[in-house]
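User: Hi! I'm a student and our assignment asks us to look at how structure tokens line up with a sequence. Could you show me two examples?

Assistant: Happy to help. In each example below, the sequence comes first and the structure tokens follow. Example one:
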Amino acid sequence: MPLRVEAMRQLRRRRTLVVGAVLAVLPFVLIAAFAIGGQPSSQSGRVSLIDSATASGANFTATCLFVSAGFLLVVPVALFCGDTVASEASWSSLRYLLAAPVPRARLLLSKLAVALGFSAAAMVLLPLVALAAGTAAYGWGDLRLPTGGALPSGDAVPRLLLVVAYIFVGQLVTAALAFWLSTVTDAPLGAVGGAVGLTIVGNVLDAVTALGHWRDFLPAHWQFAWADALQPQLEWGGMIRGSAVSVAYALVLFALAFRHFRAKDVVS
């Protein structure tokens, strides 16, 4: 299936439009919340991303990423990647796709490329809307850092782009898990829910400090390593380790998906 055809099929689906609408509306919901609740302030006197959300459009964008990276951005990734093969099986259309003289691996690769493309678009849509809405509401200015000081507005945008890129790499584990489950089950909700559920389990395990250094092998342990990008001096260590863990898990899960689908007896 050509990428263009698959992309148009996925773009016209209602769940794609709903996900896009939710991500586009979130910044305006936060702006309304700050307008109703007043200027955010810290009880401890320390400046955090939430406390400085209304300082500038760049600060508001960083706040939107902070509040959504842990769960909200997980959902569209799991939805786009977990609904790929399982939805075709549930509609009984998978057998007709496989009837075409195209290798299964090529079909699966097309679906994976489109799913990752839509996932990346979801990652980009939220900060783009947040930056535009935040700039209109709070003005264009420097990015105030939680550790003190500020990044000039000209340096803030590249740093935010780096944050978005790292969040996407971190979500590759969820994408690969959902994609693998999509080849295992004929229930799209099972693949999406399973990926989201296991991601939540990873977050819970990361909170168990008794695990010690074993938490370093959990992708959830590095999900906020992008905060190192919002420092006066850019730190790469945490993001490199987090990216390595995420990519390693993702490659294994993607390989399992292709291996299982290649030998799968499709009866749906």
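Example two works the same way, sequence first and then tokens:
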Amino acid sequence: MNTETTPAAAIAARDIARHCAAYREPDMRSALGQIANTGLPYLVLCAAMIAAAATGHGWVVPLLAVPAGGLLVRLFIIQHDCGHGSFLPSRTANDAIGRALSLLTLTPYDSWKRAHALHHASTGDLSRRGTGDVATLTVREYLALSRLGRLRYRLYRNPFLLIGLGSPLNFMLLQRMPFGVGLPWRTAWRDVLALDAALAVLVGLLAVAAGGVMPVLVALVPTVCVAAWIGGWLFYVQHQYEDTVWDGPETWDFHTAALGGSSHYVLPAVLQWFTGNVGLHHVHHLNSRIPNYRLQECMDDHAMLGQVGRLTLRDSLRCLGLALWDEDARRLVGFSRVRTLEAA
């Protein structure tokens, strides 16, 4: 279902946004429950993997890295909610937990929070692409590129490079450097380097306990890779699907872009738990102050929210072939569309 940016669509989206506003209040009990049922198992699994690697039982690590990676994704969602100020009633508590979780997610909290806010403010606006999103060209922009430019874009949009290689590289290496975060360099240097120093201390202490740094890396690197692959895929399908919405600044509307340009990823219950309800992304973009543990409640209480932007697991696989926004057809298309246009 494609939500076009028309006055009627904008009015309908605003009405739904008013419904969502009623679910903004955090619940301390739910929040603390999530920290307990996610953080504690994650730390136990990490300790088990490090101990196994240190005692010559490294074969255990790949088996435990999968559930540990899933829990790390869920911890990232908690950190994400803290960045929106939605996880706990207290802003101070949100920031404290968000910064603490940076040591596990490898994501500098303050820099990421500000860049992510820009993403929410500009989603679906063709004139404000480039901050916190997957780079997307229009068909006309792609046709105007040189052969080298087209090759670069094709390589960037290759899912094996973008998600398979790019996601782990982003979390483990690129986020260790204060470049490309869309923030003043002094702010970026302070936030990123403070986390890097804290991570160095944490890894050092774990290395002392494990008898060397290698068991720590053998345990944590696969876990981060699993979490990065899951997180990278989720971030991709949240906005990169055929019936998403993009508009120029003259017609762009925040609520229409939030509702029509963010997917409703329908996942099995166990995967929805591990991903912290982030598949209900259209609800989240309509009101980012709704905590993840109330997104399902909000969607269930409004009939239309369950029908917009639906993607099943099978549907989402077709998103891998999409790469360009067709301004005429108003949908995301693959490179085959360009071949058709050039042949015509």
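Here is something you could point out in your write-up. The first strand starts at residue 137 and ends at 138.
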